[in-house]
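Ops channel
N.P.: pipeline sanity check, posting one input/output pair.
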């Protein structure tokens, strides 16, 4: 029997997820006096006889159409259970019954359970599938079961559900006009986007809950009467008020929801059981000026129209409207309203109906209402994966208030009263910070977690009384006074004058009280501000909090609560009786509760223990109490006069944790300390570079000779000498020589653009520049070897090093000699010394080089100089091993990269300092665990503090709950102070700006006195030095005295260790005539790495290529933005500042003229790797790596990945020399090598095949699993398999979900013109991944698939002749193993393996692809030998469809033919290979797979004759195509001139004299017709010539 249209839809949905119980409907009865099982059995039997639909099961007929089959003699199965004591213990048994999904084909979808309860009663739970039940049916079952149980006879039924189906089917042909109505009605509709409490996933699940309510009888009567007076049914009135609520909640005017109509227009079916309802759409435009009476009229009209057009099947409406589909959403609507009319009051008899507490829902929200006893009863059902119960409760409350409001003011605009309130909040919270950033003790997870803890305290009674007095005198409530003090402590902890605090309110969930503490007000003035804010908030509390979130924080951060993360509550009653406001779904950071009882102020701070430690909250409470006392005693003083600390804490910060004074060597200069090392260890090795080395004595002499020469050239005290040399012995000799003259050196990176070099030399006032010619001058040997007589002083200038400048001009930091000595003597003991070997790998223009060079040479260590441009794991490991390096410094970015690449590369180091940016806890933890012999340090310090100001020895193991790695305590002779904006010390745990004092602090900025005065400020905190350097870094002291880095006070960023002032880049951009506005910020890319992004308003069209080129002439590579975004205007806040949050994420910076696709397999492989490293969708073959987001560190990552994938050794410099895919492919082609690797199939199958194997059922093949359906042969296999009747094809498609998989499959079938040839109803898409364990399926899905299929056709593989074995192994070998596992799960199934003739190559030159296919064949053979039925089919070259010519664009022989046509010449070669057409191939494979061939068979498909290239050429000539002939060598030379890229690939094909792919004697040939001449010409015509009028085949 055919199904109704609605049943077909439900059947299809159930097939999409057969494990779902979302459509199971429980109907529950309580038999108060126990149950008579005989009577119940008779009643249920009679129920089935009365309603034949209950015995239907749902199968698929021969045509693949779902149909109903009656089950003769069916009786509803009834399970019996006994419940323990307790009123609802029966639910523990029935819950499993309800959760169990139905197999619609196996049996009628209805079952029952009787649970006998401890009180003598019994509960009957009937569960049936929605496919045989609707809302009216529930009432029918309830009435019929009771009637039949009592042996009474219900009124006879004249019709059956089967007759309803027949009548519906008879009218199906007339739906066109109804479809047309829905197309017009839903044209351009806007899907409803409700604000949710949790982010929506691709599968939000069916778990639900509900909030019940009822309107009082009087309100119900008034509501019904109003509806009647407006000629409107109550159902329409309910829908109207619900749509108004949704508009208020979402802020949308276009509100589209669903509803269901009973579908029982023919009254004969009123008491018939079955699925009758029709789903329809209600769409309303609710404008701000619309009254409820107007909305009611609109809704009435829409409801009447929906009723008139309900015959249009909903799935056809969806297909016609074609809404945008999102994973996790329904088509068209996710919110439903259902009114079930009037339901009679249940009787008081021995049997009563029981509401089912558990809820499953397919919708975000469902409002279900009915009338009973004169009241409107309702239930708001909601998805618990999206909404909290508290949100649903508030929605229900607003719905009731909306009913009341609209009845009182039916002709006023519905939202008139709220419009002004919304304007208030928009203004009040405009530009509100995204969060109140309290310094946390642990990292916040992306999705908030919450673990409640609390701390209680009592306010001193004297202070409490003073606070009451202050409140009274200033006309504020005690709550306002407490809020003002709370704002102050939060302001100091969050380091902001813009503080938001949430206050719970009944109607709005939460009021956001925003307080401005700027301008250093007195407390009395602050009270005035708080009073105004609080009164304004309470006067505008009717706007739902969720609406505010949607309006003001549309981009939700689900790691914390939106708008307000801290709450203050004044509560009545004992605090222990009050539950915390914070929950996992509303994860407040802090909540302060205050209760006034008997004159005593009691307080409790509830906090998220997943974010804060108890010691932090104890400190917070202590500071809060201290400020409460100040407020009570000194309300007229400015807030800046209030301290949160006592004397002991002040002493701890200023003295105990700053006790670092030691005596520096005298004199504290580089020449003097170096001379000491020369005297003590003259023959010790000072420098090593490659094969060269010098001793301390030799370095002393060399530098002396150069110093004499420099003196004659003008070098002397306070002069500056530029040095522009690569890392080398000569470079360090030059630095030492300069210092010996008394001059200072200015290091210039030779990689800098010339303009940048000239700028720095001019700004630094360099007297001269040392370059390679001077270092290599042989006449230097004529200079005296003795030291100069210059007396260098500790306060003399040693070097000037430039950093990025916020004014647009770089800053030259002036460092004195004593600062260098402070660095090398102040580090933790053991890092430096005569027994150490220190690596120098930093750029000379980077101040880490100061540590690496002078840290070694001034302590007697050996300095090993790296000549690698950027270190990667392999050269670093080689250097450590070769030179026994013991101490090294790495930027955190480079450290992370090496840990990711190969942590063992760091083995051998005794001391590793890491810094430059915040350290990654994950990478540090991995390194500490892997390197037990290495001690790690976090080294922190700006250039102005001479490399390091603080240092933190990292403990092993790293604490489990560490949020970050502290930057530690100050070095020797260094003092640090954490100060607020007014220069006051901040307490432990409270953030402030780090200030540094001591001899390591720079002299200032060269030639910039104003900037020097701004950054180097007077020291009022000790007498050891007169100045403090303001680092601009926000830090705090932890309880152990270590400093923790929190962020920046300005826009300065660190990228790969380089300090960058975005304003310097902005200045360079604004200097260009076409740039009108510019803003540069740092953003994280998809891999989590920071990169610079420039946002520009330009006067014409953005030419980022020209911009990059221009910037590269002025700025270092690390300062050139990775992306440029053109905007009409830069977004501004209401205060005129740049609105950073409104700046869009940069899209892939793709320029059409540069995104040429790869031209050969090498380029394809490179393009894939580049896209992964750069986090882009695509990369053009001619785009420079450094123009599309690449930088030196990413270049290092790229080199490693290319080396691993192509199995070559790629020097990093090659990437800099040939920075495009095209040029790099030219360089590396021919560099690959193949190694013979061992393979043990038995070992790989261990644990895969069970012992013994499951039985094999001799059933006809009807369910086939096909892999590779999105490939060339696979597309034709889909078509061929479906030409067989009763066959369903399950296609394993690499995709995230079924929708994406269908899209990939259809696109592939369309590509080859096959979509119209297949019956898509007999295709099931299985989203998975051959390369993933278990094929990427869940265990349940894997088991289900194993039970469904009869045959596996394994045609899928990752096909790429240029990819490495390792790259292909997961999909090609591992995927085969997983399919063998599938074939041996549940029952034994035959596995048909499609291989390639290249797998049989034995000459040692086969590709990684061929080798993976060979190993997969071995797995199949081994599985067969252990009893698994299987067969192997090797394929030769597969060419185009013999009828259409459609072929595979990636076929290498097509490339050969194309080149022949382009050159007009063919190579003189006898190369030949078997060719067969794809349609013939697929036909043969389908036939062989469905035939019961002998297991273990191994076949090779072969054409009737081999295809010679010369034959093809002659065939082309016969059409009039002019093609000459050249010797192979000459032809390859012509090809190289024509296309070097093609030459690099094809020379491998023609350079091999060994024929490949000969059939193995172990494989039986199956002869398939070879393409005839017409087919060959159609192939060339379709794939290469493609003329619209006359192709080769016509000629």
């Amino acid at each position: 029997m055919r199904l109704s249209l609605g049943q077909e839809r439900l059947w299809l949905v159930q097939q999409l997820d057969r494990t779902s119980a979302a459509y199971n409907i429980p109907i529950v009865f309580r038999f108060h006096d126990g149950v008579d099982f005989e009577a119940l059995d008779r009643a249920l039997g009679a129920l089935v006889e009365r309603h034949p639909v209950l015995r239907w099961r749902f199968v698929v007929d021969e045509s693949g159409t779902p149909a109903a089959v009656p089950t003769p003699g069916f009786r509803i199965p009834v399970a019996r259970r006994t419940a323990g004591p307790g009123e609802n213990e029966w639910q523990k048994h029935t819950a499993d019954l309800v959760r169990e999904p139905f197999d619609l084909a196996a049996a009628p979808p209805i079952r029952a359970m009787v649970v006998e309860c401890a009180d003598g009663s019994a509960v009957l739970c009937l569960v049936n599938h929605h496919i045989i039940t609707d809302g009216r049916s529930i009432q029918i079952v309830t009435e019929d079961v009771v009637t039949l149980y009592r042996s009474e006879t219900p009124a006879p039924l004249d019709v059956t559900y089967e007759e309803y189906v027949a009548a519906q089917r008879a009218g199906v042909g007339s739906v066109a006009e109804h479809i047309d109505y829905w197309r017009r009605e839903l044209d351009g509709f806007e899907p409803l986007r409700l604000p949710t409490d949790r982010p929506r996933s691709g599968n939000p699940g069916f778990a639900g809950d509900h909030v019940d309510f009822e309107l009082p009888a009087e309100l119900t009567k008034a509501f019904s009467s109003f509806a009647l007076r407006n000629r409107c049914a109550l159902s329409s009135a309910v829908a109207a008020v619900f749509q108004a609520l949704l508009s208020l909640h979402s802020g949308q005017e276009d509100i589209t929801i669903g509803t269901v109509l009973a579908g029982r227009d023919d009254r004969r079916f009123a008491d018939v059981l079955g699925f009758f309802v029709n789903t329809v759409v209600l769409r309303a435009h609710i404008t701000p000026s619309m009254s409820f009476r107007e909305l009611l009229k609109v809704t009435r009209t829409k409801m009447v129209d929906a009723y008139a057009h309900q015959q249009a099947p909903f799935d056809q409406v969806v297909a016609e409207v074609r809404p945008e589909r999102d994973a996790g959403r329904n088509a068209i609507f996710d919110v439903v309203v259902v009114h079930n009319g009037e339901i009679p009051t249940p009787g008081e008899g021995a049997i009563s109906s029981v509401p089912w507490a558990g809820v499953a829902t397919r919708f975000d929200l469902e409002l279900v209402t009915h009338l009973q006893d004169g009241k409107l009863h309702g239930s708001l059902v909601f998805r618990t994966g999206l909404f909290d119960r508290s949100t649903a409760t508030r929605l229900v409350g607003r719905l009731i208030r909306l009913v009341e409001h609209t009845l009182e003011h039916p002709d006023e605009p519905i939202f008139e009263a709220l419009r002004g309130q919304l304007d208030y909040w928009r203004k009040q919270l405009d530009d509100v910070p995204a969060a109140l950033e309290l310094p946390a003790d642990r990292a916040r997870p992306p999705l908030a977690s919450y673990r409640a803890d609390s701390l209680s305290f009592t306010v001193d009674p004297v202070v409490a009384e003073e606070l009451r007095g202050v409140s009274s005198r200033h006309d504020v409530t005690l709550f306002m006074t407490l809020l003002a003090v709370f704002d102050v402590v939060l302001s100091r902890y969050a380091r902001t004058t813009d503080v938001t605090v949430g206050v719970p309110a009944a109607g709005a969930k939460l009021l956001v009280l925003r307080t401005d503490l700027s301008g250093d007000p007195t407390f009395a003035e602050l009270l005035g501000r708080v009073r105004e804010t609080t009164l304004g908030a309470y006067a505008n509390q009717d706007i739902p909090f969720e609406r505010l979130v949607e309006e003001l924080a549309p981009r939700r951060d689900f790691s914390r609560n939106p708008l307000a993360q801290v709450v203050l509550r004044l509560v009545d009653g004992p605090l222990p009786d009050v539950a915390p406001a914070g929950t996992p779904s509303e994860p407040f950071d802090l909540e302060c509760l205050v209760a006034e009882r008997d004159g005593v102020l009691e307080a409790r701070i509830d906090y998220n223990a997943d974010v804060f430690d108890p010691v932090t909250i104890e400190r917070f409470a202590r500071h809060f109490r201290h400020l409460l006392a100040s407020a009570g005693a000194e309300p007229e003083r400015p807030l800046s006069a209030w301290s949160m600390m006592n004397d002991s804490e002040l002493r701890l910060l200023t003295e105990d944790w700053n006790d670092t004074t030691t005596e520096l060597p005298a004199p504290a200069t580089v020449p003097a300390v170096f001379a000491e090392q020369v005297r003590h260890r003259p023959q010790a090795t000072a420098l090593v570079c490659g094969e060269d080395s010098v001793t301390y004595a030799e370095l002393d002499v060399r530098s002396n000779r150069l110093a004499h020469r420099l003196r004659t050239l003008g070098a002397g005290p306070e002069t500056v000498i530029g040095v522009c040399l690569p890392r080398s012995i000569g470079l360090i000799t030059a630095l030492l020589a300069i210092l010996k003259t008394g001059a200072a050196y200015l290091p210039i990176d030779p990689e800098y653009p010339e303009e940048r070099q000239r700028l720095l030399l001019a700004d630094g006032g360099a007297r001269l520049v040392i370059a390679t010619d001077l270092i290599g001058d042989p006449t230097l040997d004529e200079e005296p070897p003795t030291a100069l007589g210059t007396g260098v002083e500790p306060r003399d200038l040693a070097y000037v090093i430039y950093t990025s400048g916020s004014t647009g001009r770089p800053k030259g930091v002036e460092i004195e000699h004593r600062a260098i000595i402070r660095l090398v003597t102040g580090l933790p003991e053991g890092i430096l010394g005569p027994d150490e070997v220190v690596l120098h790998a930093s750029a000379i223009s980077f101040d880490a080089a100061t540590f690496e060079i002078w840290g070694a040479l001034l302590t007697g260590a050996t300095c090993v100089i790296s000549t690698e441009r950027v270190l990667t794991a392999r050269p670093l490991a080689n250097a450590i091993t070769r030179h026994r390096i013991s101490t090294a410094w790495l930027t955190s970015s480079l450290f992370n990269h090496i840990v990711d690449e190969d942590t063992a590369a760091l083995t051998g180091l005794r001391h590793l300092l890491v810094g430059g940016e915040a350290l990654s806890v994950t990478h540090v933890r991995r390194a500490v665990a892997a390197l037990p012999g290495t001690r790690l340090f976090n080294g922190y310090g700006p250039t102005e503090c001479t490399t390091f100001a603080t240092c933190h020895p990292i403990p092993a193991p790293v604490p489990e709950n560490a949020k970050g790695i502290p930057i530690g305590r100050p070095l020797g002779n260094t003092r640090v102070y954490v100060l607020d904006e007014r220069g006051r010390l901040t307490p432990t745990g409270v953030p402030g700006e780090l200030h540094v004092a001591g001899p390591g602090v720079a002299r200032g900025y060269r030639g910039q006195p104003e900037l020097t005065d701004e950054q180097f400020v007077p020291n009022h905190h000790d007498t050891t030095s007169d100045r403090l350097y303001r680092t601009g870094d926000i830090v705090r002291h932890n309880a152990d005295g270590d400093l923790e880095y929190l962020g920046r006070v300005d826009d300065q960023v660190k990228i790969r260790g380089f300090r960058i002032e975005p304003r310097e880049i902005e200045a360079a951009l604004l200097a260009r005539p076409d740039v009108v506005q510019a803003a540069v910020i740092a953003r994280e890319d998809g891999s989590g790495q920071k990169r610079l992004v420039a946002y520009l308003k330009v006067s014409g069209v953005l030419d980022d290529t020209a911009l990059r080129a221009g910037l590269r002439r002025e700025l270092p590579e690390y300062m050139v933005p990775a992306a440029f975004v053109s905007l009409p205007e830069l977004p501004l806040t209401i205060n005129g500042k740049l609105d950073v949050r409104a700046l869009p994420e940069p899209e892939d910076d793709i320029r059409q003229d540069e995104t040429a696709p790869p031209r050969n397999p090498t380029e394809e492989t490179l393009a894939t790797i580049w896209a992964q490293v750069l986090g882009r969708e695509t990369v053009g073959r001619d785009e420079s790596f450094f123009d599309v987001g690449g930088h030196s560190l990413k270049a290092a990552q790229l080199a490693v990945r290319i080396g691993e994938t192509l199995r070559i050794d790629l020097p990093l410099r090659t990437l800099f020399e040939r920075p495009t895919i095209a040029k790099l492919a030219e360089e590396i082609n021919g560099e690959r090598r193949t190694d013979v690797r061992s393979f043990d199939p038995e070992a790989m199958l261990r644990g895969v095949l069970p012992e013994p194997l499951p039985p094999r059922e001799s059933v006809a093949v009807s369910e086939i699993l096909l892999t590779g359906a999105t490939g060339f042969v696979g597309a034709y296999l889909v078509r061929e398999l479906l030409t067989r009747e009763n066959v369903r094809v399950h296609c394993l498609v690499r995709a995230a979900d079924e929708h994406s998989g269908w899209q990939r499959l259809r696109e592939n079938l369309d590509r080859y013109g096959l979509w119209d040839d297949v019956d898509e109803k007999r295709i099931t898409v299985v989203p998975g991944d051959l390369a993933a364990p278990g094929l990427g399926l869940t265990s349940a899905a894997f088991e289900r698939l194993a039970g469904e299929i009869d045959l596996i056709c394994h045609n899928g593989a990752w096909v790429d002749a240029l990819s490495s074995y390792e790259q292909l192994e997961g999909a090609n070998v591992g995927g085969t193993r997983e399919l063998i596992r599938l074939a041996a799960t549940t029952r034994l199934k035959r596995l048909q393996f499609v291989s390639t003739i290249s797998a049989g190559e034995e000459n040692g030159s086969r590709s990684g692809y061929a080798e993976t296919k060979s190993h997969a064949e071995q797995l199949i053979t081994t599985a067969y030998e252990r009893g698994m039925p299987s067969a192997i089919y090797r394929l030769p070259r597969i060419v185009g469809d013999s009828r259409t010519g459609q072929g595979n664009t990636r076929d290498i022989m097509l490339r050969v033919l194309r080149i022949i046509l382009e050159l007009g010449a063919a190579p003189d070669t006898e190369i030949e290979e078997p060719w067969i057409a794809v349609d013939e191939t697929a036909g043969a494979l389908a036939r062989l797979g469905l035939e019961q061939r002998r297991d273990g068979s191994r076949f090779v498909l072969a054409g009737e004759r081999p295809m010679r290239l010369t034959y093809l050429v002659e065939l082309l000539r016969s059409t009039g195509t002019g093609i000459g002939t050249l010797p192979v060598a000459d032809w390859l030379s012509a090809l190289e001139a024509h296309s070097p890229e093609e030459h690099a690939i094809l020379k491998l094909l023609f350079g091999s004299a060994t024929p490949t792919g000969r059939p193995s004697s172990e494989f039986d040939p199956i002869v398939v017709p070879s393409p005839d001449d017409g087919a060959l010409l159609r192939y060339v015509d379709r794939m290469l010539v493609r003329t619209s009028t006359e192709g080769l085949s016509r000629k």
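N.P.: looks fine end to end. The radius of gyration is 40 Å.
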